[in-house]
Amino acid sequence: MRNIQKQPEPISLIRHRCSSHSDYDNYAEKDDLRTSLVSEQRGICCYCMQRIYPTLEKMKIEHCQSQSPNKFPEKQLDYTNLLGACLGGSGKPRRDQHCDTRKGDDDISFNPANSKHDVERLFKFPGSGRIEANDLQLQSEIDDVLNLNHSILVNNRKAVIDSFTQILRLKKVRDVDIPKYLATWEGKNGAELEPFCQVVVYYLRKKIARMK
Question: Quick one: which of 75, 163, 186, 202 has the most CB atoms within 10 Å?
Fold first, then answer.
């Protein structure tokens, strides 16, 4: 998981919010919203960091705080509460669901788009492929609410870091060049982010810290 910097919201969402009797269900221009969310998230899911695309068939619009009537209905058109998520095993048994699909109306205590939460500080990405937190509540939210340590996701993250470290060894990358790799995986070039990018970012930041 990585921090998301929110960009200006779609004009169509602003107009809809200002219209009479507006709610999320009767917002007809959700394609605008999908495009904005995928763009600001640089092409990856807000939670698991798999690739997403701005279509109904390739992503979900996530309400970080649930829009359900008994939860946070006032947040249903709040752009700061809206994120782009992968399909998360939609249609599969609950044990194989993750991200927004698994979360449903459950609560989590963090929002990747809230700079005060700084999710990059809250979570660790060890070489095992798991996501770990020092806080027991956060770990429970990762494991039980979002199911981000499902074996498929763990294996995918481990494959990414194993492949990257092998490249470093084969190319005999010098320590002085490590910051360049970090800038690329952080997306400093403005391009789409690589799926599961934060696993490599975490590894490189630790490596640079040890070099100092």
Answer: 202
